[in-house]
Amino acid sequence: MATVSAASIVGWVVSPVIKRMVSLVQSYLSSRYNWKSDMVSDLKNLEVALLDILLVVGAAERQHVVDTNQILLMHQMKEAVCDAEDVLDEFDYMLLKEKVEQKGMLKRIASSSLSIGKCFISFDKFRSELCKVLKSVQRVRSSAEIFVQVMALESANTFQSLQPVPTRATGSLLHEDVIVGREKEVGELVDQLVNKFDECSLSYGIRFSTEVHTIVGVGGIGKTTLAQLIYNDERITYTFDLKIWVCISNNFDKIRITKEIIACTTDGENAELTALNFSMLQDELKRRLSYKRFLLVLDDVWYDERYGDHINKQMWMELLAPIRYSRKRPGQRKIVSGSKILVTTRTELVARMLDSRSSFFLEGLGRNDSWLLFSQCAFGSRNPEDYPELKRIGDQIVQKLKGSALALKVIGGHLNGKYSDTEWDDVLHENLLTPNDMLTILRLSYESLPEHLKQCFAYCSLFPKDYLIDPNRLIRMWIAQGFVHQQGSNGRNLEDIGRGYFNDLLTRSFFQVLRRGDQTYYTMHDSMNDLALHVSQGECFRVDHGSSIVLPYYVRHLCLYVEQLGNLVINDHLGRLWALVVLNKSWFCSKVCMSNDILNKLRSVRVLDISGCCFNSLPEAIGDLIHLRYLDIRRTYYPLPATMSRLNHLQALFVQYHSCCSSGSSRSNKRKHPSNSRGQGSTSGGNFVLPESITRLSKLEHVNVERGYTVTLSSMHQSTCVEGSGEFLVDKDGPSLLQLKDLNMIRGDLTIRYLENVKSTEEAAKAQLDLKEHITKLFLEWGSYDSAHDINKGFEVFEVLKPHSSLCELTISGYPGVRSPSWLEFGWLRRLEFVCLRDCERWDILPPLGNLPLLRGLEIRRMDELKTLGPGFFGSSGFPSLQSLLLERLPKLEWSVVQNDQMFPNLRHLSVAGCPRLTEYPTYPRTLRHIAVLDRERIQVKTFIDRVELSRSFCCVVSSFFHVLHSHHLEFIENLEIYVNHFIDMSRTVFTNLKSLKGLKIYGVNRANTCSLVTSLWDENGNTVLPLALRLLVLQRCYLQPSSFSMLLNNLSSLVTLQLSECDTVEMPCPPVSLNCLRSLKQLHIYRCDWISYFDGSEALVSLEEMTIRCCYDLEFIPDLGDMPCLQKLDLYDCPQVMRLSKSGHQTALKELNIGSCIALSSLEELCDLVSLAKLSISDCPDLLRLPDMDGFYLLRVLEIYRCYNLRSLPQSGLPVSLERLSLFGCCQVLEEQFQRKEGPDWDKVAALQGGLADGMKQQT
């Protein structure tokens, strides 16, 4: 029988549980409670039993178990321990409950045992349960004693010490003749290694001249192979005098490593090193490397978890001391510099430890390279094209392996010589890797972790592959399960300690960073996910999407998808669960609710994530989950139930977005919900009100509400960490700002409204905003005010509402005062990145915001008395980081600094609206991308502006304000959008200055005024005034002259994208649109251009990849498909004059063809041999009689035909064997009757295909 790791059965969870229980029992024994003697005896017995079992389990975790009886015994001990932990937790819950209900009870427990009969009833009940557990634990302890004897007697047979994975040894030679991929990575790293770096001078002619570069990646990703490719590159051989390769692995031996480096420098001579100690070896190494430029590759370097950062670094600095320094050659002035050390490692910690100059984070192979490597291993010398079904399955396998070179080799090698679809399909849908494959390599990473990180990592097996991990939620789950410990933490709270755990796993490559735009996510590589499943198989169970549920008895942590909830109702093991996570694969609501039958069974659950479920109201039974510490839900329509006040162990509450309860939702017939008792507000709209009773939960530390909802803080009275968008409403007769005093742990956004109701400066000061260091965004709002007294009081309140200095964003609305508070005047908020000042009608002189070093965005709106933006506003720095400036409805505003190039050195976006006195503007620098100048009457034009981020200069302007553009703006603009609102006689010289222009978009806000602007794009001879390098031209709602427009196109030979939308003409009759010179055009989009009847010169469209034509009612012909050899997608909709599509030559690139509402189209017979076509969709073509012959449609997978009422038959030659989906609806009755009867020539064509396509057709006809 194969050996099984005991740790994988019980180890990672049982040892910490036992230790936690021992600590809890000891705390009870050492407490001031006046326990009954019997209770003390029971607690002591439990302590002793637990310590005995801990010794056995600890020893077993370091062994391999091979006997099934021993495994069963380990399970029994585990279950008894977990049951005992539940009972202890119930007792702890009882104490918390008593503390809430009668605060003086605990004191009376210590002083008198006669006056607290009620409490002793609870204790007796606890003791009764504890006795049952003690009996079970005592039986297990007896078995454990036998277990220990077996360990001693049969240590060589039954129990075997955990065999370490053999030390890895690698060399510099490549094992394969051909290496797939990595050309880009090799090129980039070789460039880093061969380029000379800036030397750092030291004294005595010695310089620190050897730099370190690191390749970081998970096990099996291909780090060693990449290092071998670099090592053997010709440029490396030419650059370095000496190349050295040493494999370190997880066995750090400084003497061995030094000897191996010396051995690589001997040039064939025998070096006698046996008698040399470490100091002598270092001197010898230093001598041999002197005066040489060398490359040292240290492969597979590990971070020794037994030591801290300092010791690890000291060990390596000592080893590399003779390597990282070099001297001058005799007689030379210059040092021999440029020596490099290349390190491969699994963890970023190593890069930091070695002071790496650069870290290269190696990702998986790309899609094409992954397929090439896999197919080489799986098919060998055979051609994958000869096995289309295996190729299809193989492609899916490759996608699941995420570019892991080792996994691709292992799985490909496993399938080599196997050509059965079933075998390949089994590999696709089962676990791809076994413990003998990749997990053997990755296990080293896991085994090297400290114990607390092992259990945290293993717990992550609950999350499916590609799951985006939220560190805040994961850390709170760890805390709820007791994985995070405060011992030796120097007073740090559990959340900060847990974040340290997460960062430790991240730097060790157990997690990966995934960036999408400005957002940062975390995920696990598929190989690491498999490893987590492997090491947690005795505790965690995950039901992947589409799988059936067979829940093992011993599982304590379960994750499944919401669609599978129904299968849990009949499961009797739910009462054993400590964690249940219910996921929803879609962002939208699942509409599936968890039944009360399931909720009532979760007697022991600590972590409950039901964010995948849909609840109008959270069941009151939630209050019965007395062990619950972590709750994650979607926002409910009705308030949270008052029974939540019974969750005395609850530590964290997360409320996520719920599409069923969005801010705009409403219900016409709102029923009164029974749990909507007094003190619970409605949760409709954008506000989310926590029940007042939640303040009784003394353990509640963290409330996180989706920022799309606003949490009303008026009912909060304790130092709970509320994360999200918090709102506090100051009421004249209600909550006072004093209630904010103890809410110093709130995180995220804080809004304070109705500040005019603050009664005094003292009240405002007691809010202590300066102590709320975790607030990132602060919104302060005043409402209406009448008198001068309100103005003075407004300033006094504003003055004392000084935020914490770490604030990032500040919005001030409705401030009634004239002066600025001192904390804005003197740079207290130096970390501010965004400021918005609005509706402050009397504020006439702004503070020196230009001195804020990090300010990136500034908005000033509706400030009636603001007169100037002058030196006091710009300060001494002049907004060094500002990128976006918006000025709106400032009727008296003028610049007092004009033509000053020192202002706004990084400004990119400028928007001005309703500022009539801003007749002159500062000279903006060349970083400016976007100008939007909008007068007050034309503010609605903003809605036409696309939100785009371009690489260089971008200008967006309304035509009536061209006068604000200085000549230096135009020269560097690459992308220009013009919104034509007024008639303008544009000089052609404006476009002549656009020397860098690559993209031009003209939008006709007022279509009639576009003609003069468009005609200015060419001169009297028809030559364009636009730069010939123009790549993008978009004309929307413009008047065109087709003859002149064609001449314009003939001059734009570099055009890549042409888009005409809703363009009319004043020229009748209309000549064809000439495409003769557009040989670079790749995208052609035409919408609602009725004047186009056909195109001329389509044979020039040799580069066109995508063509879309919609709603062109006079169009009769589209270009011949044979003239467009690169065309990949063609969309043709609502063109009622088009009768046919032609293809005279070869067309091998077209992948997708969509035709709709072409009522005159009668035949597609000419479209034969479209060898790359994957999708063909035809709809609403009532005259269509015949489809093309599909013999040559080798890759067609999707065929859709809707409402083609005259189509009588499918192609005579049948359908392609590659077809995966056929949708047929609304065709000729003769054709549909065949599918209803399941007989006939066309039915036979479908039935002849494999994959059950005919059965699917039955449901669609």
Quick tags:
alpha/beta, Rossmann fold, 18-stranded parallel sheet, 30% helix, ATP binding, leucine-rich repeat
What do these coordinates show?
This protein is of the alpha/beta class and 1261 residues long. Among the domains are: 6-103 and 122-153; 183-194 and 209-325 and 338-361, Rossmann fold (3-Layer(aba) Sandwich); 367-438, no CATH class; 686-832; 1035-1253, Ribonuclease Inhibitor (Leucine-rich repeat, LRR (right-handed beta-alpha superhelix), Alpha-Beta Horseshoe), CATH 3.80.10. It is 30% helix and 17% strand. The protein is built from 33 helices and 48 strands. The strands form 9 sheets. The chain has an 18-stranded parallel β-sheet that branches. Helix 6 (183-194) crosses helix 7, helix 13 crosses helix 14 (388-401) and helix 18 (451-459) crosses helix 20 (494-507). It is globular and about 110 Å long. It starts with a strand and ends with a helix.
How is the biggest beta sheet arranged? 18 strands, parallel
Mean pLDDT: 76
User: So what's the overall shape?
Assistant: globular
Number of helices: 33
Family: Belongs to the disease resistance NB-LRR family.
Domain R13L1/DRL21-like LRR repeat region: 739-863
Keywords: ATP-binding, Leucine-rich repeat, Nucleotide-binding, Plant defense, Repeat
Region (Disordered): 664-688
Itemize the secondary structure elements and their pairings.
Layout: E1 4-5, H1 6-29, H2 37-61, E2 63-65, H3 68-101, H4 105-111, H5 117-153, E3 159-161, H6 183-194, E4 207-208, E5 210-216, H7 223-231, H8 234-239, E6 242-249, H9 254-263, H10 278-289, E7 294-301, H11 309-320, E8 325-326, E9 339-345, H12 348-353, E10 358-361, H13 367-379, H14 388-401, H15 405-415, H16 421-429, H17 438-447, H18 451-459, H19 471-480, H20 494-507, E11 512-516, E12 519-523, H21 526-535, E13 540-542, E14 557-561, E15 579-583, H22 596-601, E16 607-609, E17 630-634, E18 652-656, E19 687-689, E20 702-705, E21 710-712, E22 721-729, E23 747-753, H23 761-765, E24 775-781, H24 788-800, E25 809-813, H25 822-825, E26 834-838, E27 857-861, E28 868-869, H26 871-874, E29 884-888, E30 894-895, E31 909-913, E32 930-934, E33 954-958, H27 967-971, E34 975-980, H28 988-992, E35 999-1004, H29 1011-1015, E36 1032-1036, E37 1039-1040, H30 1042-1050, E38 1057-1061, E39 1064-1065, E40 1073-1074, E41 1083-1087, E42 1095-1096, E43 1106-1110, E44 1129-1133, E45 1152-1156, E46 1175-1179, E47 1198-1202, E48 1221-1225, H31 1229-1237, H32 1241-1247, ...
Parallel strand pairs: 5-9, 5-10, 6-7, 7-9, 13-14, 14-15, 15-16, 16-17, 17-18, 18-20, 19-21, 20-22, 21-22, 22-23, 23-24, 24-25, 25-26, 26-27, 27-29, 28-30, 29-31, 31-32, 33-34, 34-35, 35-36, 36-38, 37-39, 38-41, 40-42, 41-43, 43-44, 44-45, 45-46, 46-47, 47-48
Antiparallel strand pairs: 1-2, 2-3, 4-8, 11-12
Helix pairs in contact: 1-2, 1-3, 2-5, 3-5, 6-7, 9-10, 13-14, 13-15, 14-16, 17-21, 18-20, 19-20
